[in-house]
Design goal:
The complex is a heterodimer of chains A (about 325) and B (about 100).
Chain A lengths: L1 H15 L12 H20 L1 H5 L8 H26 L5 H9 L16 H22 L5 H29 L3 H20 L11 H6 L7 H19 L9 E3 L4 E3 L5 H11 L3 H14 L1 H22 L1
Antiparallel strand pairs in A: 1-2
Chain B lengths: L7 E7 L6 E8 L3 H12 L7 E6 L11 H5 L23
The chains are: A mainly alpha (about 325), B alpha+beta (about 100).
Chain lengths: ~325, ~100
């Protein structure tokens, strides 16, 4: 008992002194649980996030757009892998993590339950969804858990192209015909509020926020991150000549930041509960990918086994 | 061997000729060949490397957190192992 108390103290001192916690270090069970939840949710989001974009690969308007979109989606698969590996260092194996996604036990970002209806949506996803994710991930580079922090550093390095390719798509549409510009505006109208919801509930209503901040898993609260995203995004919308669908949005000279309206939290919780426009479709697509990929996993295993046996035979 | 038994591999990448391999991350694969091929896709999508090592995680031995004091602390009082410990007049120039 006394020993656990010492370990707790060592852990807290490390958090205090900004020394990263590593997989073999002692950590409180709740810290471990909290991290597994957050990192696996983050991994699932990368993987499910490939689906709305995947629909547009064959319909990309040019080869340049197509290779960029393919590269972005491939990155997301890679980012999912970095994150699954980080989660696994905490003692939960990959298969269990994947099954928790498929059974609906684990969550993923609610934004991916919205459909990508037009090509402009691919622009909006890159600009707003990746933009919001980057704000969050830049903060997470300084998270207290070593493997998560290293994964975030790698992901941030790779992800800035995602946002730029999205913005470039919208810029092209906004400089095109009236119809194309209207398509860009429509995408912004549909993606603006769900993008703000990506930062999660207000800190005062968030189940995990306070503890995550105390343990330095998160370094900034949901509300501050959301505000940061709004402040950096509004001028970018202005440059495109698009209108952000929030009549209350207004520059506040005193705060040096934007005032803005109200998020429809009922919509947020409804989507999280499984009632968004695409929840069922997304999970069905993941399940199909898992089932249809079974033979590949089996073949890889059989091939490795055969090769190992041949090697032993040759040696004999 | 089911997929859930695919071993974990640690991936080391040499970023360019002349530098050491550096730990990049880990992944699961049924054998070394597939581990290398996956490592190429996962860790070197942007010219990050010219050479990849993979090693099954179970073969890596490491110091324990409890060893830190006995392993590393004794270095702290051996400041005479550093060049700044020695007083050389400025007139001598860079040494």
């Amino acid at each position: 008992m006394a020993q656990e108390k010492d370990l707790q103290k060592i852990f807290e001192e490390k958090i205090e002194k900004e020394i990263k916690i590593e997989p073999k270090d002692w950590m409180p069970d709740e810290y471990r649980k909290n991290l597994i939840r957050q990192i696996s949710q983050h991994a699932h989001s990368e993987v499910v996030g490939m689906l709305p974009e995947g629909n547009w690969i064959t319909r990309a308007p040019s080869l340049r757009r197509k290779v960029a979109l393919l590269a972005k989606i491939q990155d997301e698969a890679g980012h999912g892998l970095y994150l699954y590996c980080a989660a696994e260092t905490l003692g939960k194996d990959r298969e269990t993590l994947v099954q928790e996604l498929l059974s609906g036990k684990a969550k993923y970002s609610s934004i991916f339950n919205y459909p990508a209806l037009t090509w402009a949506d691919i622009g909006a996803i890159g600009w707003l969804v990746d933009g919001a994710a980057i704000v969050n991930q830049i903060m997470l580079q300084k998270t207290s858990y070593g493997p998560y922090s290293r994964g975030m550093i790698r992901i941030c390095k790779e992800e800035s192209f995602h946002q730029r390719q999205g913005y470039e798509i919208l810029l092209t549409l906004c400089r095109g015909t009236e119809e194309q510009k209207a398509m860009a505006q429509d995408a912004l109208n549909r993606f603006w509020w769900p993008s703000l919801m990506m930062f999660g509930p207000s800190d005062k209503d968030s189940a995990h926020s306070a503890q995550s901040m105390a343990w330095k898993i998160k370094r900034m609260g949901n509300d501050d991150l959301r505000q940061k995203f709004i402040d950096q995004t509004v001028p970018q919308a202005n440059f495109l000549g698009l209108t952000i669908p929030d009549p209350e949005l207004k520059w506040n000279e005193e705060k040096q930041s934007y005032d803005w309206g109200q998020i429809d939290w009922e919509e947020f919780y409804n989507v999280i509960k499984g009632n968004g426009p695409c929840n069922k479709e997304r999970l069905a697509a993941r399940q199909a990918a898992y089932d249809n990929g079974a033979w590949v996993r089996e073949a890889a295993t059989a091939y490795a086994k055969k090769k190992a046996e041949r090697k032993t035979k040759d040696a004999a | 061997m089911e997929r859930k038994d695919w071993p974990l591999w640690e991936v080391f990448v040499r970023s360019k000729a002349g530098l050491s391999h550096k730990h990049a991350g880990s992944l699961h694969a049924p054998d070394a060949e597939m581990a290398i091929s996956n490592a190429r896709d996962v860790y070197t999508r942007r010219n990050e490397g010219v050479s990849i090592w993979v090693v099954e995680s179970k073969y890596i031995h490491s110091t324990q957190e409890s060893d830190v004091e006995s392993m590393f602390d004794p270095n702290e009082d051996k400041i005479y192992r550093h060049p700044t410990f020695y007083d050389i007049p400025d007139e001598v120039g860079h040494m």
